[in-house]
Structures are given as C-alpha cells and as structure tokens.
Amino acid sequence: MDSLEQLVALDRQHVWHPxxxxxxxxxxxxxxxAQGVRIELEDGRSLIDGxxxxxxxxxxxxxxxxxxxxxxxxxxxxxxxxxxLTHRPAVDLAKKLIDxxxxxxxxxFFSDSGSVSVEVAMKMAVQYWHNRGRPKKTHFLTIRNGYxxxxxxxMSACDPINGMHHLFSGLLxxxxxxxxxxxxxxxxWQEKDIESFKRLLEEKSDRIxxxxxxxxxxxxxxxxxxxxxxxxxxxxxxxxxxxxxILDEIATGFGRSGKxxxxxxxxxxxxxxxxGKALSGGFMSLAATLTTTHISETFSTxxxxxxxxxxxxxxxxLACAVSLANLELLESYDWQKKVxxxxxxxxxxxxxxxxxAAVKDxxxxxxxxxxxxxxxxxxxxxQPLFVEQGVWLRPFGKLLYTMPPYVIQPDELNTIxxxxxxxxxxx
Length: 427
Fold this sequence. Notes:
It is built from 13 helices and 16 strands.
C-alpha cells in the first residue's frame, strides 16, 4: 500500500482536479472517511465540512437512511438503460419532484449533473420554439454575475467578463446579458433594477428562446442575494414578450435559501426548472429538468417528434432511489426551522467580520453566508489555514463563504464562523 506521501505525490502527478493546473501545485488533503458533518483525513485530522461538499450533502455524510436506500437498491440493480425501460425509483422520484415543485411543473427529464440539466433546459427551449414554427428564437437572455455550469451551452449563459469561462468566449454562442440586480434581498425594491432586462426583451424577444438565471441567489457568480421582486418582474416580462423562463435552482433548491425553492420568494412558476446538487443529498450525481405540460406537448407534434436528448446514465436507479430517500428525509423534520436557525447564527457570529480591514461586505440568507473581501483570496495560503482550525471551506475569488449541512449543530457552526473570522482577520 502506498504511504500517505506517495498517495499525495501520485495524485499531484496524475489526477487532474477541478479548476487546477497539472501537475497540481495546490495543497490536497486525502480523505479516509466522512461521517455526519465531519471529514476524516488520512493523517488523522477531523474537519467540519462548512460547504456540504459543494452544497450537496445537506444531511451530512454516511447517513443511515441514505445508505439503507442505496443498499436495498443495489441488491436489485445499480443501473439499467432508460431508453424503452423504466423502473420504480425513477417514477417515484419524478412524482416526488412534481409534488414538491410549483404545480405547473408536471414533467421530469433526468440527467447526470447540474450542467447537463442546464444543457437540457436550453435545448428544450430552442426545440420548443422550433416546434412552434419560430426557429429564429435560439438565443438566451440572462443576467451578469450568473453561473450555470461548465458545459458549452451552460458556459454561454455564464457571465462573459466576471465569470470563469472568458477564455472560451470565441467558441460560445453570444447571449444577451442584462445588468446584474443591485437591489439587495431586504432592501426597498426599485423598478429601475429591471430596466436592462426589460430593454433587452423589448429589443430582442424575436430571437430569444428563454431567459435563464438563478432566482434570488447568485451562487458561484459571487454569492449575491437580490430582491425577489426582480424574479417576479422578470417572469411577467417574459410572459409579456413570449419568451420562456428557465430558473436554475441547482444550488438553491431543496431548502438552501430558506424556501424549498428560491422562486417561492417571488411566488412564481418558471416554464422550466433545473435542480441538482442537494437532490441526492450528495450521495451520487443526479439532476433533473422539470417543465410544464404545455411545453412538453409540443414535442410530439414537432419536426423530430421527440425531444432530442438522452444521457446514457439518465434515470440511474441507484441515484434515484437514494434521492427519493433524501427528499423523504427532508420532509421528515422541520428543515425550514433548522435553516432559519442556521441563518440567525450566521448573521450573529459573522457580524464582527464587517469591522475587519480586509472585509468589504458580510451577508447571509438561509444556510448561506459570504464574507466578501477587498482583494482576491490566495487559495494555496488560505485553504490550509482553515484546515489547521479543523474546518473545510473552499474560498474562491474574493469570497470566504459557508453553506453548511442542515444537520450541523450550533457549536459546530460556531467553529466554522470563528475560523472565518480568524482567517479574515489575518488577511
């Protein structure tokens, strides 16, 4: 068996990590196991996970109910193709998603990841308009500071200047970008905030298939919380100008913002919704794209007669079974009360950060909090500082942020917030 040093050396030399160079110069921390909210490292250290493994493990690691669902399913089958076959885990999960999401969303298309669910949504919108005899509606309207994934259509809807994909701009379809919302979540609404979005619809609606954005919370684009009225007004304008509305709830879905879905703050239903991340509780990669009967019914009458998309591992039984157990677990307790308690503690614990010289802004909503710095974070320096304090966080850009599991206890959350204050104070 390789020593710990050999393991790290092999990883650095051969394993390409996300958003990392090759060979990887950044520190990596080998994991031995994970239980509850803690990650156990191979060197014996224990870390409280403050970002739920990129916002997925809302019920922590190794949860017995999710493990039991996986074990029961794997004894039957771990996978079977979804073309021409179906199975109870996928059907039951689809029904659960329909029950949980806004009433008009009645049809579920499964995929492997959040990025692919966005690709599906964008293809769905374009093919919908082709079915309706309007093939020129192939572009998308979005808002700056957004992030929707790393695949090509998804990248085209990410912020082209402040996002992570400007190197590919020459290859991507050019979309329409409205100014990012400026009115914060709890501020007084100002109609001028929607003017850029409105103007683009007035000028380009004949070419726009759909508007796509993250409702209320822009996540990887800066952890920004904006006014729900923006979402409501955008929905109204899309209907007025005959443009579909796609809401990306991949990060916000399943309670993270304090509502089951962030669109509930605006009391609206999109034409298409993308979900992922917390869907399976971080157990396996799974995502879904939901839409209305009106949209789905156009596909049987269109040129192709079907929706032209079909991932190989679509509707994976193991992922569906675990996801269903995860959503049933979420419904089994007062998750909203728990998330609101997390929000209250985040606001109280992190308020002192505002006085630190390195800090520009402190904000929190639901089980999400961000410390925005004046200058970008050096992750090679900052990441080990958190590990030394027994916390796993993954800063990016100018942000120190946390999105903890819902099952975290107040003392564990205090360890995270204290570490954030300590690191911010040292910068």
